Amino acid sequence: DIGYYVPRTGAIEAFARISAGDRLRAMAFRLEQGHDLRWRCTAVELGGPRRPQADDD
Predict the structure, then answer these.
(1) Does the predicted model carry a pTM greater than 0.70?
(2) Measured between alpha carbons, how far is 10 from 3 in angstroms, rounded to an integer?
(3) For 48, which DSSP code?
(4) 40 assigned to some structural domain
(5) Cα three-residue angle 33-37-43, rounded to 5 degrees
(6) Does some domain include residue 43?
(7) Fewer CB within 10 A of the end CB, N or C, for the chain?
(8) CA 43 – CA 57 distance, rounded (Å)
């Protein structure tokens, strides 16, 4: 499954959900167009099983 949202001119937020068997992963990213008209990825998020966080003792 894929999709996108245009929050404003010159910005696109896109996502993908990928399933394989009983596993589901997600990816989202934001592209912004600069003054030089080049697109740059300004944010990336990857989703899957979360790792346990280390204790800060």
Answers:
(1) no
(2) 17
(3) S
(4) yes
(5) 25
(6) yes
(7) C
(8) 31
- In contact, 14 and 29? CB cutoff 8 Å: yes
Between the alpha carbon of residue 35 and those of residues 10, 17, 31, 39, the distances in Å are 10, 31, 13, 10
If the chain, 57 residues long, is cut into consecutive pieces of 10 residues, what is the mean pLDDT of each piece? Answer: 95 93 90 97 81 65
Is residue 4 within 8 Å of residue 17, measured between CB atoms?
no
Reference 1, options 22, 27, 23; nearest CA is 27
Strand ranges inside 1-47, DSSP E: 2-8, 11-20, 23-33, 39-47
Instruction: Report the number of distinct structural domains present in the chain.
Output: 1
